[in-house]
Amino acid sequence: WLLSSLFAVLGYLFLRLGVAKIPLFAPNVGPVAESNLIQRLITIPYEIVSYLWIIFFPKDLFICQHTLISNISDFRFWGYLGLLGILGMLGVWWGIRLKSKAFFFFVFWFFGALFLVLNIIPLDMTVAERWLYFPFIGFLGMVGIILGEVIRAFPKAFLSNLFLFCLVVLFSCLSLR
User: Fold this and answer.
1) For the segment 64-82, what is each residue's pLDDT rounded down to a tens digit?
2) Which distant-in-sequence residues (6+ apart) come within 8 Å of 50 by Cβ?
3) Which residue of 35, 53, 69, 141 is 20 to 30 Å from 29, comparing CA positions?
């Protein structure tokens, strides 16, 4: 195991240093990497809302975003913090209503994985879509549990009509886009 790990590390170093010519300790290029802790902390609501926006409306995707909230009076701090407070209360309400350990597991999965990319430890960009891959699994788990409860709560005839209606609306919206 140790020998195979050593070969993997040596292969990576060869590709990074020899082929790509990228130094091990490259300077940070994003403004969030050069900002202080307070600026990174007040940027967190913007980052979370950006990731939620990517989940619900993935339009105009970019490889990275370099937005930095540098002033506490910025609307993107207070407005997004209020929105997250409302969404958080809804999430707590659903969690208490469901009494599901699996739901809380997926909530912790989503926010635990998202916590790693919120620039508390500075990264080279503020938001990157690829950083949402792992937290998205937790989000899908939460949605699956909520949908399971909705399916149990309504009769099958109503759900089949609702499902058909949602598909027509979804396909119509995608066709218009």
Assistant:
1) 888 888 888 988 899 999 9
2) 65, 67, 126, 127
3) 53
Whole-angstrom distance, CA of residue 130 vs CA of residue 82: 26
End-to-end CA distance of the chain: 51
Q: What does the alpha-carbon distance between residue 8 and residue 30 come to, in Å, rounded to a whole number?
A: 29
Residue-wise burial string across 38-66, b where 16 or more C-beta atoms lie within 10 A, e elsewhere: ebbbbbbbbbbbbbbebeeeeeeeeeebe
Identity of the amino acid at 119: N
What letter does residue 16 receive in the DSSP assignment?
A: I
Q: Left (φ > 0), alpha (ψ -120 to 50) or beta: where does 130 sit? A: alpha
Return d(Cα 20, Cα 82) in angstroms, integer. 44
Instruction: Give the whole-angstrom CA distance, residue 83 versus residue 48.
Output: 10
With beta carbons less than 8 A apart as the criterion, state whether 129 and 64 touch: no
Q: Are residues 65 and 125 in contact, defined by beta-carbon separation less than 8 angstroms?
A: yes
Q: What does residue 65 show for φ and ψ, rounded to 5 degrees?
A: -130, 140
The pair of three-digit structure tokens given for residue 128, joined into one six-digit string = 């990157």
Q: Is 65 within 8 Å of 128 (Cβ atoms)?
A: yes
Q: How does pLDDT run across 104-146, given as a tens digit for each residue? A: 999 999 999 999 999 988 888 899 999 999 999 999 999 888 8
Compute the C-alpha angle 28/30/32, nearest 5°: 105
